Amino acid sequence: MIERVEAPIAATLRNGRTVTIRPLAEHDREALLQFGRSLPDDDWLYIETDLHNPDIINRLVDAYAAENWRQFVAVTETGEIVGYSAVRRLPGWSSHVGDIHLIVRKDHRRCGLGTALAQAIFDAARDLGVSKVIVEIMQEQTSGIAIFERLGFNIEGTFSDHARDHAGRRHHLYILAYHII
After folding, report:
1. Domains (range + CATH), the chain
2. What single string gives the DSSP state of each residue in 85-111?
3. Residue of 4, 8, 124, 29 whose CA lies nearest to 77
4. What gap in Å lies between CA 111 and CA 33, rounded to an integer?
5. Residue spans of the chain under pLDDT 50
């Protein structure tokens, strides 16, 4: 059985705000939907998971206990979700690899929350038993790339015109990776 990291983490951000980083829970459905709806339109060009869609939110929340997946949220003192991160252990011949996702609300960027969420999900990846973690990120997402590079990730591959945003435009996709072992 895989041991879970369940303890909430209190994080004081560079702007003085405090958030709690904790596992996604059953009671987070409405707050996660509100989080998705709070993201600016330009973010939706680069987000693969449709956090506007209640069915997608239900699937994410219902998967909170999945053995191969860990999801975390950053929650303010008022209960608002201002960040979401996830790691999923890949199946088959890539079962030693974890795929990471990370989204931070615009008003909580550039204050250390992305780095804190990335570190929490990176630690959860270790608990999943993976020896390598990856993140797929579009070339234009320079802030996201910088967060993962600060954590020790390197670009392992570039796929030309591999990803399409929600407007149908193609973008180069970077695969950043970190070898745990």
Report:
1. 9-179 (3.40.630.30)
2. EEEEEPPGGGTTEEEEEEEE-GGGTTS
3. 8
4. 23
5. 1-5
DSSP-assigned letter for residue 1? -
Chain centroid offset of residue 176 CA: 14
Q: Helices 142-150 and 113-127: crossing angle, nearest 10°?
A: 60
Report the C-alpha gap between 104 and 35 in whole angstroms. Answer: 9
pLDDT in tens, 103-154: 999 999 889 998 899 889 888 998 999 999 999 999 998 888 888 898 899 9
18 burial via Cβ count (<10 Å: 0-12, 13-18, 19+): exposed
* Residues listed for the chain: 181
